[in-house]
Amino acid sequence: QITLKESGPTLVKPTETLTLTCTFSGFSLSTTGVGVGWIRQPPGKALEWLAVIYWDDDKRYRPSLKSRLTITKDTSKNQVVLTMTDMDPMDTATYYCAHKLTVSFDPWGQGTLVTVSS
Amino acid sequence: QSVLTQPPSVSAAPGQKVTISCSGSNSNIGKNYVSWYQQLPGTAPKLLIYENYKRPSGIPDRFSGSKSDTSATLGITGLQTGDEADYYCGTWDTSLSGGNYVFGTGTKVSVL
Q1: Quick one: pLDDT at residue B97?
Q2: How much is the pLDDT for B3?
Q3: Which of A7, A21, B60, B104 is the most exposed, having the fewest neighbouring CB atoms within 10 Å of its CB?
Q4: Interface check A107 vs B, CB under 8 A
Q5: Distance (Å) from the alpha carbon of A108 to chain B's nearest alpha carbon
Q6: How many CA atoms lie less than 13 Å away from A106 in the CB half-sphere?
Q7: A-chain residues within 8 Å CB-CB of B90?
Q8: Is B92 an 8 Å CB contact of chain A?
Q9: Does B47 touch chain A (CB under 8 A)?
């Protein structure tokens, strides 16, 4: 059974850097074809894909946020970390991580709400 | 803003059928597989359909998917109150170097 769980601060101040950790079980990020992605959802709005990292350390980022995002993995700890710099109130959202195999994200973590406010 | 367009809402009576469209372009739906995700109120999204029409284990055959050219459709038959949720299509877009994943604008399904 694959499970993922997001962790990190619930409140960050504008201009600060957000660091989120996705801790997973039931699969290995060293297995060919496997990836872990991050997706966010502002309150009442649609899903927005942010980034994905693959077993071979290949990384993809949302073009409009590429300069602010960094995704890394620690295979030994079964963790993926997403950092987002220069946080703004518009970045307030629930952040999800999800397992990726082939072309879909499945399953997803429960999500963590991050509020950006001074 | 999303590059995949969905109707904001659809509704029908219990037992009836609804369809949700997802309109894209040659750089996304036209070239890549489409997935559909269901998000029940207050919960994380769940994969409903992958590779255009395939259902993961445990997803009832009341849910179906199809794709034609640059559009995809999700169908729900035998509508139940438990189907009230937001539904999103998703696929890869290769218009930019490296590609990026895109979600639809989302559709709220209501059971009358």
Answers
A1: 67
A2: 85
A3: B60
A4: yes
A5: 7
A6: 20
A7: 47, 49, 104-105
A8: yes
A9: yes
Reading chain A (118 residues) residue by residue, the pLDDT tens digits are 999 999 999 999 999 999 999 999 999 999 999 999 999 999 999 999 999 999 999 999 999 999 999 999 999 999 999 999 999 999 999 999 999 988 899 999 999 999 999 9
For residue A37, give how far its alpha carbon lies from the nearest alpha carbon of chain B (Å).
10
Q: If you measure CA to CA, which chain B residue comes closest to A65?
A: B100
B63: contact with A, CB 8 A cutoff: no
Looking up tokens 């590059």 gives: B3
Cα–Cα distance for residue pair B32/A72, rounded to 1 Å = 26
Instruction: Measure CA of the first residue to CA of the last residue in chain B; give whole Å.
Output: 30
Inspect the interface and report whether the beta carbons of A52 and B101 lie closer than 8 Å: yes
What is the 8-class DSSP label of residue A100? E
Task: Read off the pLDDT of residues A97-112 as tens digits, 9 standing for 90 and up.
Answer: 999 988 899 999 999 9
DSSP for B22-70, please give it.
Answer: EE--TTTTTTS--EEEEE-TTS--EEEEBTTTB--TT--TTEEEEEETT
Q: What confidence score (pLDDT) does residue B94 get?
A: 87
Residues 6+ apart with CB under 8 A from A97: A4, A6, A20, A22, A24, A36, A37, A38, A39, A80, A82, A108, A109
Q: Is A103 within 8 Å of B91 when comparing Cβ atoms?
A: yes
Q: Which two tokens stand for residue B22?
A: 């997802």
Report how far residue B95's alpha carbon sits from residue A49's, in angstroms, rounded to the nearest whole number: 16
Low-confidence ranges of chain B (pLDDT < 50): none
